[in-house]
């Protein structure tokens, strides 16, 4: 190895000597290494596939000295030849050039281990892959494919940050106490070595397997995703571990069974710190997972155990099972598809509609099943995870009874597998940790200090720029301003490389800084005025946005200091009512409800209006305690009639039910969104289960939501029929009916129904055929099934009405025709007179009269209909009108 290369490698890449120790050098054809200058912005990141002779790397460094350049090499023979014969030391000493070499077999592990180190760079810049022509095409393609696979989730994360970075970072900050008092994910390592783990997800097929889970769950370490908490609770299944990671507030709904309690749950909760900040506080035993380039690194909380990519909570659950040392790992409810045209298992929280755009993939038990882009991405990652697990000797069983096929898993029924497990599996982990937040308070204060310094530096830079502008306008002499320009640039670099800025301020205001970097033009060859304008915009952004963010840090410090005081010296601080009240209000702001309630349970607050108010405020955070909160507010006002704050909060609390109903009405009328409306009404009912108005609304919305849901499902089933080529069977049946070949049509439909029993249109036609055959009982059975599947189809109700009329069940016939008419008012001409007859028979003369009169213009038998109208007048006691109609009838009969 050339001496210059050896000296640099000794300092920056010592692993290379060992890697190349037994490699025989192989000459390379330098003439083929042609360089074409790419178009890059200074924040973009270059990945160079293949180092070659170093020519392309050198040119990239010369042309883009400020850009991050990452090089991966698998041609070890060529690399050794270059290091022995070509001086490439300039590449290796460059601060922004990063070189990683590996043999072909281990390149994926090498790239995976190193690529995430540059996530912060990728968030603000784009990736450009440059392929060195000296690297064999198959090798470079392999590197490029791995890079693209790892870059995709980073890109998705960037898109999330652009929209929601402030929510995400605020959650992390507000979850500091949970991280501080919890345990790193490493704490779970090998705690369930070689024990079977059951990963319970919320796919539609979970409904089929829930009873089996209930029967055998003691034989597994049960790791549940948060969306199944409700359904497990309904079946008295307590998971050992619950996993959560979603930053959105709506995710809190998944935890609603836990919010009915008056104290924190004792399940182990594994979470990402970006999760909505109220959620970790629902649990006593907390374990956190952190990532590279996280804000928490500023608090000396290091990244931990992310063995494989995670973009869904199910991936996190499997990651936990692997860390526990579990083997085998069994999947259930992992459909990654819309099994039976359903979004999630019945009983899971947060029902959703089905997407417009579907992707069809191989199923576990069906040839094709529908999914979408998001689920397909998760499915792809899960297949890669399964491949990783099996490579480590872990058995991966997919016991999901439907859905998409997960590559690299063994399909087996859950009950069959569970029966072979001969003993129960248990996990016991003690969560004993001295409660102290002192070190994190200190770190946050250091962050606050750095933020103030950044504001001062930005302000100083703005003043320097102002001075530069004035001096240059006077002298037009660059030499007179050079030192000031260098000073401004130095501040720029200090701020850009300050971890508090890059891991906190830039991320919190991600969209603002991302847009700035995208708009920023290359300063080379620009006028001084343009450079100053650009520089001032940057420093103004830093100054203003950092100042805005300081309040969150100050509030967090205050909350942590108060909480820490009571953790360390409870007896001393509990005597200070003002300090206690301040803590409780902070607990409310930070969602730390159970901590506040736990303190209040230890003291007598019976005659203390402020502390009674504080308890009411804490309870008001969970709607299940609405009535209790109202009672406490009223008690506080009774003790202190001038307690204005209590009066205001009481008014707000009492308005919560009606506000939910108003929002539900808006969802129905303005967006036709019955699913959201139902969710809001159910929440209103949680506030007061006995509220009659809410109960009526819920009954109505259930019907509307069912119609919307079933309509979506039938659409998916029809898509599946088209894909599998069976829609022609339905079309054939229609054609046979037109030809009056009734029996043949019925046979075709019967075969279609056996294959797709959830296809409501086929059941409707079969039932209609049987009505004509007078087989009313069987027709009723088929049409009832059709009604459940396609409740929005008016002709199903018309057909059912025919059966009820034939059987003289007139009340049900009336109800069926009313439903048909409400679904399609245009049917009034077709069924209006029949429904009018039924109204007349039940003495509902006004309704009958209305339908008869509207039908008068189209009927062929006006005399008969006028007689019916006359009888309605008679029934209503309007004898004069009755006689007038009779006179008109007599006149019509005479003319006839």
Task: Describe the structure concisely for a colleague.
This protein has 896 residues and is α/β, with parallel strands linked by helices. It starts with a helix and ends with a helix. The mean pLDDT is 87.
Total DSSP helices: 37
Q: Outline the biggest β-sheet.
A: 9 strands, parallel
Low-confidence stretches: none
Mean pLDDT: 87
Q: From the alpha-carbon coordinates, what is the Rg to the nearest angstrom?
A: 35 Å
Could you characterize what this model shows?
- The chain is of the alpha/beta class and 896 residues long.
- 59% of the residues lie in helices and 7% in strands.
- The chain contains 37 helices and 15 strands.
- The strands form three sheets. The chain has a nine-stranded parallel β-sheet.
- A hairpin with a 7-residue loop joins strand 12 and strand 13 (369-371).
- Helix 21 (577-589) packs parallel to helix 23, helix 28 runs antiparallel to helix 29 (742-755) and helix 33 runs antiparallel to helix 34 (828-841).
- The radius of gyration is 35 Å and the shape is globular.
SSE layout and pairings?
Elements: H1 3-12, H2 15-19, E1 45-49, H3 55-63, E2 68-73, H4 76-85, H5 89-93, E3 97-101, H6 107-115, H7 119-124, E4 127-131, H8 137-174, H9 176-181, E5 183-184, E6 197-200, H10 206-216, E7 221-225, H11 229-234, E8 241-244, E9 265-271, E10 283-288, H12 313-324, E11 329-332, E12 359-361, E13 369-371, H13 373-391, E14 396-398, E15 410-411, H14 414-419, H15 438-475, H16 478-496, H17 499-508, H18 510-519, H19 528-568, H20 570-573, H21 577-589, H22 593-600, H23 609-619, H24 626-639, H25 644-671, H26 674-687, H27 692-723, H28 727-738, H29 742-755, H30 760-772, H31 776-789, H32 794-806, H33 810-823, H34 828-841, H35 845-855, H36 862-875, H37 879-895
Helix pairs in contact: 6-8, 15-16, 15-19, 17-18, 19-21, 21-23, 22-23, 23-24, 24-25, 25-26, 26-27, 28-29, 29-30, 30-31, 30-32, 31-32, 32-33, 33-34, 34-35, 35-36, 36-37
């Amino acid at each position: 190895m050339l001496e210059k290369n050896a000296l640099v490698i000794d300092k920056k890449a010592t692993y290379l000597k060992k890697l190349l120790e037994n490699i025989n050098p192989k000459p390379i054809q330098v003439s083929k290494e042609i360089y074409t200058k790419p178009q890059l912005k200074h924040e973009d990141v270059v990945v160079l596939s293949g180092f070659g002779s170093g020519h392309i790397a050198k040119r990239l460094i010369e042309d883009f000295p400020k850009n991050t350049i990452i090089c991966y090499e698998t041609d070890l023979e060529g690399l050794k030849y270059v290091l022995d014969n070509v001086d490439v030391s300039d590449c290796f000493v460059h601060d922004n050039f990063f070189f990683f070499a590996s043999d072909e077999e281990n390149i994926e592990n090498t790239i995976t281990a190193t690529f995430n180190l540059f996530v912060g760079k990728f968030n603000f810049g784009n990736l450009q892959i440059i392929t060195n022509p000296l690297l064999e095409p198959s090798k470079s393609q392999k590197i490029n494919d791995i890079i693209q696979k790892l870059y995709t989730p980073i890109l998705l994360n960037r898109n999330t940050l652009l929209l929601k970075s402030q929510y995400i970072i605020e959650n992390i900050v507000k979850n500091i106490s949970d991280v501080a008092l919890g345990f790193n994910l490493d704490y779970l390592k090998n705690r369930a070595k070689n024990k079977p783990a059951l990963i319970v997800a919320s796919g539609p097929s979970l409904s089929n397997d829930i009873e089996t889970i209930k029967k055998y769950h003691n034989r597994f370490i049960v790791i549940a995703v948060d969306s199944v908490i409700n359904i497990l609770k309904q079946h008295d299944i307590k998971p050992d571990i619950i996993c959560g990671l979603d930053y959105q507030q709506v995710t809190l709904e998944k935890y609603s069974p836990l919010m009915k309690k008056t104290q924190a749950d004792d399940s182990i909760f594994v979470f990402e710190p970006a999760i909505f900040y109220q959620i970790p506080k629902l649990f006593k035993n907390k374990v956190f997972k952190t990532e590279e380039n996280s804000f928490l690194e500023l608090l000396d909380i290091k990244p931990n155990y992310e063995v494989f990519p995670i973009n869904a909570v199910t991936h996190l659950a499997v990651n936990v099972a692997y860390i526990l040392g579990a083997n085998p790992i069994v999947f259930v409810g992992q459909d990654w598809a819309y099994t039976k045209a359903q979004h999630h298992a019945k009983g899971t929280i947060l029902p959703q509609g089905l997407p417009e755009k579907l992707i069809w993939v191989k199923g576990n038990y069906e040839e094709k099943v529908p999914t979408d882009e998001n689920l397909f991405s998760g499915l792809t990652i899960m297949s890669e995870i399964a491949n990783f697990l099996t490579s480590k000797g872990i058995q991966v069983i997919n016991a999901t009874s439907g859905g998409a096929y997960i590559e690299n898993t063994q399909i087996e029924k859950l009950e069959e597998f569970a029966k072979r497990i001969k003993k129960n599996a248990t996990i016991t982990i003690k969560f004993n940790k001295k409660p102290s937040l002192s070190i994190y308070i200190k770190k946050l204060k250091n962050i606050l200090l750095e933020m103030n310094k950044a504001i001062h530096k930005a302000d100083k830079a703005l003043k320097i720029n102002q001075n530069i502008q004035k001096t240059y306008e006077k002298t037009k002499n660059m030499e007179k301003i050079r030192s000031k320009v260098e000073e401004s640039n130095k501040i720029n670099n200090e701020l850009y490389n300050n971890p508090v800025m890059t891991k906190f301020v830039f991320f919190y205001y991600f969209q603002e800084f991302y847009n700035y970097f995208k708009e920023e033009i290359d300063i080379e060859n620009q006028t001084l005025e343009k450079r100053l304008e650009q520089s001032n915009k940057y420093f103004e952004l830093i100054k203003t946005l950092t100042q805005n963010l300081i309040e969150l840090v100050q509030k967090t410090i205050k909350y942590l200091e108060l909480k820490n005081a009571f953790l360390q010296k409870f007896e001393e601080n509990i005597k200070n009512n003002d300090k206690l009240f301040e803590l409780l209000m902070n607990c409310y702001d930070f969602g730390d409800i159970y901590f506040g309630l736990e303190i209040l349970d230890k003291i007598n607050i019976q005659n203390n209006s402020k502390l009674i108010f504080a308890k009411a405020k804490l309870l008001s955070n969970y709607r299940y305690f609405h009535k209790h909160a109202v009672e406490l507010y009223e008690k506080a006002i009774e003790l202190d009639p001038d307690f204005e704050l209590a009066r205001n909060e009481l008014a707000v609390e009492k308005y919560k039910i009606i506000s939910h109903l108003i929002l539900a009405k808006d969802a129905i009328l303005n967006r036709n969104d019955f699913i959201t409306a139902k969710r809001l009404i159910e929440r209103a009912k949680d506030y007061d289960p006995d509220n009659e108005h809410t109960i009526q609304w819920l009954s109505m919305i259930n019907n509307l939501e069912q119609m919307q849901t079933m309509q979506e499902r039938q659409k998916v089933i029809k898509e599946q029929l088209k894909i599998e080529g069976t829609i022609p069977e339905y079309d054939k049946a229609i054609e046979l009916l037109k030809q009056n070949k009734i029996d043949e049509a019925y046979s075709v439909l019967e075969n279609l129904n056996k294959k797709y029993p959830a296809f409501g249109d086929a059941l409707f036609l079969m039932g209609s055929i049987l009505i004509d055959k007078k087989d009313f009982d069987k027709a009723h059975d088929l049409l009832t099934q059709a009604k459940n599947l396609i409740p929005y189809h008016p002709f199903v109700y018309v057909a059912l009405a025919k059966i009820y009329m034939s059987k003289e069940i007139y009340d049900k016939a009336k109800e069926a025709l009313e439903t048909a008419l409400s679904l399609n008012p245009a049917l009034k001409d077709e069924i209006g007179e029949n429904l009018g007859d039924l109204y007349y028979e039940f003495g509902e003369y006004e309704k009958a009269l209305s339908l008869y009169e509207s039908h008068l213009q189209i009927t062929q038998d006006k005399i008969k209909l006028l007689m019916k109208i006359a009888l309605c007048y008679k029934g209503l006691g309007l004898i004069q009108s009755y006689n007038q109609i009779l006179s008109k009838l007599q006149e019509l009969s005479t003319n006839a």
